[in-house]
Each structure stands twice: as C-alpha cells, then as structure tokens.
Amino acid sequence: MNTTSSRPGTKPARYGMAVDLDRCTGCGACMIACAVENNVAPAGPDATPRTGITWMRVYQISNGAPFPDSRAAFVPILCQQCGKDTPCAAVCPQEAVEVDPATGIVDQMPQRCLGCRYCMTACPYHARYFNWWDPRWPPGMEKTLNPDVAPRMRGVVEKCNFCHGRLHAARDRAAAAGRRELLPGEYVPACVEACPAGAMVFGDLDDAASEVARLARDGHSFRILERLGTEPKIYYRTARPWVRQAATQQRKETANA
Amino acid sequence: MFQEHRGQILFLGGALAALVAGWGGFPAVLFQREPQPVAFSHKIHAEKAGAKCDDCHFLRADGTFTGIPTLDKCSGCHAQPMGTTAEEKRFMDRYVTRNREIPWQVYTRQPENVYFSHVFHIKLAHLDCRQCHGRQGQSDALGPARVNRISAYSGSPQFQNMDACENCHRQRGAANSCLACHK
Amino acid sequence: MGFTRRDLLRFSGGSAAGLLLTPVPWTLLHDTAVLTENWPGVPRPRHGEIATRYTTCTLCAAGCGVRARCVEGQPVSLAGVAGHPGSRGALCPAGLAGHHLTFCRGRATEPLAKGKPVGIDHALASVSAAIAECGSGESVAILDARPGRAASLVYRRFLAGLPKAVHCAPPDAQPYGGFGIDLENTRAILSFGARVLDGWLSPGRVLANRSCFQLIQAEAAYSRTASLADVWVPLPPGGEETFAAAVARALQGDDADAQAAHVARILLHNQPAIAIGGGAAAARINQILGSVGRPGGFLPRRDFMPATNIAALPDHSIRVLLIEEPAANDSLPWDVVARKLAQNPMVVALTPWLDGCAQHADYVIPAPVYLESLDEAPTPEGCTVAGFSLSPALLPTPPKLMAPAEFILRLAHDPSAYSEILKQRVAAIKKEARGTIFTYADAKSTRVADFASADDLWKAMLGGAAWFDDPIRSSRTESLPRAGWSNPPAVPSPEYPLVLISADSPPPHGSPLMSKLYRESGLRRSAIAAAVHPETGRAHGLADGGRAIVKIPGDSFTAQVIFDAAVMPGVIQSAGRASSPASIRRA
C-alpha cells in the first residue's frame, strides 16, 4: 500500500515530543494514561517485563555512584517515530507499518500484521510489543474501553501511534467547525496530557513557532541512539551531564575505532 | 458422440456446475438476510411527519455522527400512537412501553478497526448521503440486511472491502494513509 | 455403461477447476481469516454519545479535580482539571485509573456477620445491642482516617450521645494538624522520610513548585524521593530524632557533625525553610526556623477538628470499634489497634473491600467505592486554607451497599440521608459567605457571596467545583500541635542482624493496570522484592536475582533478591512493610 498523498488543503505536520528528564519523577502516570486511552489490557498472570505490553515504558537510570552518592533519573521510552530509514517499516513483510506523510507518525496496523515479530527485532528502542495472549480484563471492566481505539487480538504487534484516536477526534471537532487544520494544543496524546510534572511537550516539529520545535533546537536537547541515523522525533532534555551521558550511552572512542 | 468425448463433456459439465453454484448459489447461501425489527417507512415520515434527514441523523457539536437514532428520538413523537397501523401498535408495545432500544440491523456496519468520519465526508467533502446510502431515505420499506454468515461483515455490495473507499479517495486526492481510516 | 469412478473423477476435476474461477475459495479463505480475527474473546468497546462530566477524586487526601470522558454514561478515561488551585490539572497513576475500581475483585457485596451474609437491619440491631451493653470503663470508638469531614461530624454527634465514646484516627492521620504548607513560597524542605516527590500532598502542586525549593531527604531508604532529592541524608533506621536534634544544634550555632552542619547551612541559606516528619525533634527545627505562621511555612487554617491518635488511647479500653476503611494508599497498623481492644470486642468494618480491615472484623458493612455514590472531598492535605468539594457519582450504586456515614446515622436513629448531610455542609458554606468556588467546567472562580442561594451553590458543586476558604491572617504561633510521625528505632540483634525498611507502598486496591508499573516494566519494585547492597548480600550468602527467606519477629516471607549498590549496607529494602529487625538467608 503506497501512501502518496498528504491530506488535501492541509500542510503536512511532523509531530514530535520534547521530554524534560529533569522534571520526570518516574511516577508512571504516562504509562497508566496510555494504557487507559489505548485499550491495553493489564498483565496476564504469566506476564514478565519482557512480555508485558507497555506502549509507554519508563526506565530508571543511575549515575553509577555507589551508596551514598547514588542518584536516579527516569526516562520515558515510547515509539521514537523514526523519520528516516524507519527500521520497523523497512523489515515488515506485510507492509503493516507505514510512515504517514501527513503527520510523520509511524503507523502500525495490527489488522495487517501476521505476527512474525521481525519489526520487534529491528526496533533499536524496544518500543514494540507483541500480544502473546488475547487481552483479558476483569469482568465488567471491558465497559471502560475507549471506542476510539480498536482492541487487538493475540498474535499481532502493537506500539505507540501518538494516540491516533485522539487525532481522529481532534480532526472531527475541527471539521465540525469547518476547519481542516488543527490549532496548536487541539491534539495531545494521553501521556503528555497526564504528566503531573508537565515534563512532556507535544507538537509539530516543522512549526517553527511551536514550543516543541523551540525545545528541540535547544542545546540541552538530545535524542537517544542518534548515531543510528533513524531521525527519531522524541527529544529528551536535561541540564545534568551524567543523565545525558547515561541516556546517550556514548561509546568510548578508541584509537582503532 | 457423447461416448467419444465423454471425459471432456463430464469435465466441462463439472466446471459449468461449479460456476453456476459458485456465482449464483454461493452468494445466496453465504449471506444471511436479517430483517429489520420494525417496519419503518422513511417515505411516511418524510411526507406525513415532515421530517428531514438531519432531524434524526445529524452531526453533533464535537463532530461525531448520531447514526441510527436511539429510542428517545422515536418516543419523542410516538409516546402516543401517531397513526392507526397494527405495525405501529406492535412497535409501541414492544419497544416504547418497555423503554427497550430497537435492535436495528446496520446495512453499512464496519469492523471495529475501521474509522469513518461522517463530518469529513459531509462537511468537508460535501458528499450527498445517497452516494453511499442509496435511496434509503426515500424508501417506503427497509429491506433486510445481508450479513455474511462466516465473517459477520455487512453484505452491502459497496462495502465488501475497501475498494470503493480507496477508489474515491484516489480520484479526489484525499488522504490514503492507513491510519487515516483505521483505528 | 454406467457412471464409473473415472467419470466421477473427471466431473470432480472439472468442478474443482470451475470452482477456482468462482468467488468460493477466495471468499471462504478471506471470511475464515476474518472470523479468526474477530474471536468473541476480544471485547468490543461500546459506541455512543460522548459526554464530559466532573467530579473530585477521593482516593487520597489530595482531593484532585477530575474530568471524566464518558461514553453513554460510563467513564472511559479520567484526566485532571486545568487551573484547579489544589491539583494544578494533574492526576496521579491511581487517579488516572480510578474508574476501574468498581470492577476490581475482592469487594464486599453484602453485610457480613462473622463471614456469613446478613441483612442490614440485623447488622444494625446487633451493633446497637453491643453498644448498649458496654460497661463502665468500656468505650465505643470510631476510627476515622480522615477527620474533619462532614462525615466526621456525623460520627462525633453520634458518639456524643453515648456515655463513653471517642472519635479517633490512625497514627499517621493529620500529620500537620490544623496547618497547611505554603509550598509556593517555600525555598527548602528538610523531609524525614516523607514521600515528597512520590505522592505527598497533591502531586500536581508539589511538582509545579519543584524548581523553587531545595529538597533534603533524610531517611534510611533509597526511596524514589531520596533518589531524586537535591541531598539524600542516609540515616540509620530510626535515627530521625538524633539527626533532627543535631540539625537543631547546628542551626543555633552549636557543635554538630558535618552532615548536620551541611543541612543546617542549606536551611539557613534558603529561607523560608521547613522540616516535615521526624517527630518532636523536627518540631524544634521548625521553631528555630520560625516557619510556623509565616509565608513559606506552616499556615493555620480554620477547619481543624482534632481527633485522638488511637495509639494514645489506654490499652484494652475499646469494646465496640467501628473502622472506616482508610482510602486506597493509606495504611492501618493493626497491631497498634488490636492493643486497644477490650475483652470480647466487637469490630465493625465499614469498607468496600474484603481484604483490608474486614479481615479483622466481626461485622462487615459494605461501602461504595470512588465514583459509585455521592461523597465529599475535604480540605486537600497541605492546603493553606480550608476546602471542600463534592465527589458526585459517575456510576450507578450497586445494591446492598451503605456509606459509612449512613450506617452511623442509622445507628443514631437519624433518618437523614448522607446527601442531606452534605447539602447542610454546603448550606453552611453559603451562610458563612467566605471564600471562592472554583468551577471545573469553565475554570472560573466565583465568590461564595455572589451565589444567589444555597441551592445554586449546591447545583454548582454537583457539576464539579471546589470551595476554598479565605486565608486567616497569619501570626506567629507556638509550634505545630503535631510534628509528623517517626519510625521507632529498629534495634538489630544477633538473631536479626539487619533492618527491614520500606521504600515504597503499592496501593492495596487499585486498577489492575498498576501491573504495568510493578510487574511489566519493573519501574517500581513489588512487595516480594528485597533489595540489598552487594556487600550485605555477599556477606549473607545471597545471589543477585536469587530467592531468599526474610525473617522478622513473628513473620517471615520469601523474597526475590536484588543487588543494588545504592541501598544502604545493613538494610533490606522492601515495599509495604513497617521497619523491623530482620534476618535473611538464601532460600
């Protein structure tokens, strides 16, 4: 399936995010809000950190110092929405992954996926998750499912899509007012809205006036595994050198490298 | 002559039987005809009640579409009998009095993973209802819905797969990325 | 010549070839595939009209404003209320999934007497009889985890009509007494183990002000807050009072150790500064810093209703104890409570859950959970003015449940409904004509005096609103009536050479989605994890990732060992358990 056109009458956007690691306290509100919004089921009894589905997952990193000088920082990892040579899109045998030219979002289609998990191997950020089991909610809790997102069955891969259900709802609201373009702030993913520390900013990276574009250009911003050249769209920010060091995991350059 | 070409004739006979069964018999068997629970007439409501399409099927302020109206729309007028037909009486006894939602069959029911935005197609693409829904709004009787027995998909001719949608999108240069229409 | 087998094969061959030219095989393949994708096991969301409704979260003392997205009346997601003066538009993880609580397992669904279902009238009669039979020296007590509510007034009115009765609270209730904390102007906080960055006061408020204050976390555990604080002072378990006394000495210019002197310097250079937790010695620090009754410190407010700390009651004095289950992430130290019960006590649990205080109760009166019935949210903890909001129900109330306040009203032979009590509270607010109402839907603040009537005010609050009192003109007063809690020192012995401390407390009842935080991501360690410093681990023959048996006086449990060089040597860091001496060996 070749997506050729952007949406008529609109300027293509390149949605991205800026996450302030100096504000993140690792509370996990983003993880819970993501699961609520996207109809992700709670862990089955056999789930482990490798088999649980967490489209948004917060990792803890340490400054490496032993007691009593240890300090922690928390890094929320979600699909980095790679913009160039997107690894998962390149390897999918089913063309179930596509980079949308209108939004820059890497679209994952569980209904096309055949579950080979090649994309999970290809993703450098481990941001893709496989449904090992059918989703199961306690009796009655399926009433709380979000109608804007379709639940997935077992055997398919899923991942963050920047809350596409919210994008649809925002476009609907704008269309009801006769607009094709979205105003800044009209479309916000669940994790960004939920963060109690206000550590996450979302918007159009190509809109020079937007806050996320300004933060992305800032000297404190960096991207994870930037050296792979996949042009991820999630920018992380910190003023603490050890956090930047730990998050970017720079290899020590040797004379023979 | 039959004996000479016995093999070929039987072969062709088998092929012919398969073609007839496959093209004629199979669709009839594959689709279940589900009648509507109430014999609703769009024509009567348009003519006698002066109802317009968007009295019952309209866009809400947040851009969502009401689709098939809920019982309170009908009860708004039919709290008392509006006519003299036995069908209306049956409808009132079964649904209005018991405050039970009518289990309408949806002709154009889409799978859960499909996202269709009525507001886009009505307000921005300026499509007419008839282009996708046919002459339903002027009909005197609602025909049965055709439902695929195996997949439970709607048997509506233009909604068997996404071809009709894709073609129109291609012609008009509308968005055709996957998540534009899926969720 | 009849119809031979060869004829049949030819005919079938032709049919098969012809069939390939019909839709049959392709459609069957496609439809069967679709059938397997639409297995009935995967639930479908309900579609319908989407509406926004407002309420207030009652899962903890923060009382954050809640905006609920409802589909055909069923909340499908919750979010904070932008501009809310208390919560600043934030909700914590428990609050974000609060709409799942009504579906959680382990609910008390009908009144129980010693585990057997009974009618509510039978339960009322039995409890009334037990109360009437109390002899001299035997008291009736209601254990109220959040004194100061309209419900608490109902309890007091009932208890006042009895010869010997006491309104009491768990030891960690009302940590700041009748004072709020002027966090917006605080420049340094010395915290003795309070979870400042992990659920203290209202998370949105604390994090909105984080960059304004230096945080010194003094505790034994390498907790979330300790790992993020500006300074972590690793105290030996139970060493809070000693350290606080040293800081007090350093603040006054007397001799103290280097660490206390360092902390004192930070407090002096970043004024106004406060100390929280740490017992009486920390209260002395607040006195020296002059942080009571001053901007940036503790400010008094109007609503304080002191309740007796249950730990301070005489032992074996309570004959009938009614316990209102503390909210989701509070805890009830049962050993402290059990000591106060007289011979032949009757314990009545007013609770939604079967596994909390109901485990120790003779009678269980099932209560509604958050969102199931109209409730109140009192002054948010730490707020510098008195506050009140309603928590309107967003879900139908299941049958056979009775709100705790309603049960007490029945015991008192008062026919009022709990909602009428709340309406009277709102009418009192209107009558006093003080303060402002912040309405959630439009984020506007209106003076109480500008409402036409108590009825108008009631309607506004039912639509989602919070009342905030006017501030009292502050003046320097004597030290806080309460100075927080302090851990008793855990004394190691040859049998128990280590100390078990808690660094986290998973909410006892929360959405099953909390599995994402605890099991699926490893972001928070579970209650069966035991983290030790690698030296401590090796000294006790443990393996990283292996299993171990942890023994404490009176109990033991199996745990998964984690070697963590950040943890203090000599302690076992776990979750959800009180400090105690402990031993550990490989399982």
Keywords:
heterotrimer; B: 183 residues; mainly alpha; 2 domains; two-stranded antiparallel ribbon; 2 strands; 44% helix; extended; C: alpha/beta; Rossmann fold; Barwin-like endoglucanases; eight-stranded mixed β-sheet; 26% helix; globular
Describe the structure.
The complex is a heterotrimer of chains A (257), B (183) and C (587). Helices cover 20% and strands 15% of the residues of chain A. Chain A is of the alpha+beta class. Chain A has a single domain, classed as Alpha-Beta Plaits (2-Layer Sandwich). Chain A has a 4-stranded mixed sheet. A two-stranded antiparallel sheet of chain A has the order 2-3. In chain A, strands 4-5 form a two-stranded antiparallel sheet. The radius of gyration of chain A is 19 Å and the shape is globular. The N and C termini of chain A lie far apart (41 Å). Chain B folds into 2 domains: 1-34; 35-68 and 104-181, no CATH class. Chain B is 44% helix and 4% strand. Chain B has helices at 6-30, 42-47, 53-56, 71-78, 86-96, 118-124, 129-133, 163-172, 178-181; strands spanning 31-34, 145-148. The longest helix of chain B has 25 residues, at 6-30. Chain B starts with 5 loop residues before the first helix and ends with a helix. Helix content of chain C is 26%, strand content 24%. An 8-stranded mixed sheet of chain C has the order 5-4-17-16-15-6-7-14. Chain C has a 6-stranded mixed sheet with strand order 24-26-25-28-23-27. Chain C starts with a helix and ends with a strand. The mean pLDDT of chain C is 91. Chains in contact: A-B, A-C, B-C. At the A-C interface, helix 1, strand 2 and helix 5 of A face strand 3, helix 6, helix 7 and helix 15 of C.
